[in-house]
Model the fold of this input.
Amino acid sequence: MADVIIIGGGIAGLCSGMLLARDGHRVRILDRDPAPPPAGPDDRWAGWERRGVTQFRQLHGFLPRFRQLLDAELPEVVPALIADGALHGNRVASLPEAMTGGLRPGDERFAFVTGRRPVVEGTIARLASQEPGLEIRRGVAVRGLLTGTPTLDGVPHVIGVVTAGGDEMFADLVVDAGGRRSPIPSWLAELGERGPVEHADDDGFVYYARHFRSPDGTVPAAKAPPVQPYDSVTLVTLPADNGTWGVAIVASAADKALRALRRVDVFDRVVRRYPLAAHWVDGEPLTDVDVFARIEDRHREY
Done:
């Protein structure tokens, strides 16, 4: 059995912690945000503050591969998500047969479970908090790494972390689940280690996004794939949990004329110009227009 510290209590950190705990290890997840997830889906969406997750209320769509891995490794998660209102189905089956040619053997692999990020993460966090051998410590930020005697010449040996409060926490393994903006590369550089080779670039896009809800718990019919590219914009329509969904207009950040999409009336009017997506703005609005810019593509080579 090993002592493991995981930095970051998002979906990746929580699932990693559950898997390691089931392998018999003692796991501590450290997350900088203090608030635990509220019990209800609506409360998670409206009131759960996760300042450490920059795109917490951005559109999210969880792909079939996510569902496949949960079924294989954490089989209780998908039923719990469905019980909390997550949408489940098959993307191929939901599209018109004229577009897909109909279901074929093997298409069952496209079955998915999806929802708004706060709702999905809250369900997984609840299950993780019940996992024997796994402890979640919220409101604990990490400011650096602890090192011990190297086992390889010239290679720092990480033996734990230092919290923002100055506490030293030791472990046999430290897992970085801090996301794309993780400070781990700079911490390794401070220890004299080269760290990963990082490639990062602003992709030049901006997302103008809104969320909606239906009065009867249904989601709009899929008349086209979730991503619809057009000449100057791309439309994204993603069904979510409990009769909610998200709509985004993706445009070039350099297109100044399209910055008017920040206005609700302009956003809705533009979406209604596209027949395959127009009905996606017919629900009860849950948000005004959220703008997400400076979206980086990032790849690290270790």
